[in-house]
Amino acid sequence: MSNYETIVNPHEKSPKLFDNKVLEYLTKTHPLIIDGMYLLIAFFMIRHYVLEIAQPEWMYISLLFFLGYFSWTLAEYLLHRFLYHKIKDASYSSGLQYVFHGIHHEYPNDKERLVLPPIPSLIIAAIFFGLFYLMMGNDSFLFSPGFMIGYCTYMSIHFMVHKVKPPKNFHFWWTHHNIHHYQQHDRAFGVSTSIWDRIFRTMPEPNRRTIDIKIERSHHDERNK
């Protein structure tokens, strides 16, 4: 695979996606908003199951919740690898890949676009819930909360990697994800865990680079000359 040329603006906010102010506002959010939204949904799903459907042992609830949580890690990997990046060459410079993900690679530290906004997030969550309900019926009310909390974990880790300085003694998440951004865009698709990168053989390779990065001089840089 030939090197992929990309521009990175590490200190800049991403450009507007819509001229309409309302639509543009809806493209931005903060992880605490999404965390709160899904924690509430997860709570009411489990509550609905326990009060209206059945009263299972807590071991059964915990098992389905954990299976949902673990299933998110696979969905995270597959979405990142095959939806957010083009299947042919793992690029992200145009079309759907740019809107969903390329803009993040170009403006990696724009805190307002590190998280999928509520409306598209809820649409995708509803699609997943519909699939789970078709496959497992009422048990989806226990499985889906785990899946959603798995998503919240991923989202929080991703936000932290881009906005918080890595600790000295534990920086795996930072190292793994930064390799994906700045060295090998066709490797390290997992964010919350590397297990699926290991299984599907997309772990980063030593002394390998697939990206030629051009760092744009920002207003931040100009002010600090």
Describe the structure concisely:
The chain is mainly alpha-helical and 225 residues long. The chain has 9 helices and 2 strands; from the N terminus they run βααααααααβα.
List keywords for this structure.
225 residues; two-stranded parallel sheet; 2 strands
Describe this structure in words.
The protein has a two-stranded parallel sheet. It has helices at residues 21-25, 31-53, 58-82, 95-106, 118-136, 140-163, 172-182, 195-199, 219-223, and strands at 4-8, 211-215. The protein is globular, with a radius of gyration of 19 Å. The relative contact order is 0.19. It is mainly α and 225 residues long. Helix 3 packs across helix 6 and helix 6 (140-163) packs across helix 7.
The largest sheet, given as strand count, sense and whether it forms a barrel, is: 2 strands, parallel
List the uncertain runs: 219-225
- The total of beta strands comes to 2
Give the oligomeric state: single chain
| Terminus-to-terminus distance | 37 Å
Helix share, percent:
55-70%
SS class? mainly alpha
Count of helical stretches = 9
Overall structural domain count: 1
What is the strand content?
under 5%
**Order of strands, widest sheet:** 1-2
Question: What is the average of the pLDDT values?
Answer: 88
Could you state the order of secondary-structure elements as H and E?
A: EHHHHHHHHEH
Which word captures the global form? globular
Radius of gyration of CA atoms, rounded to a whole number: 19 Å
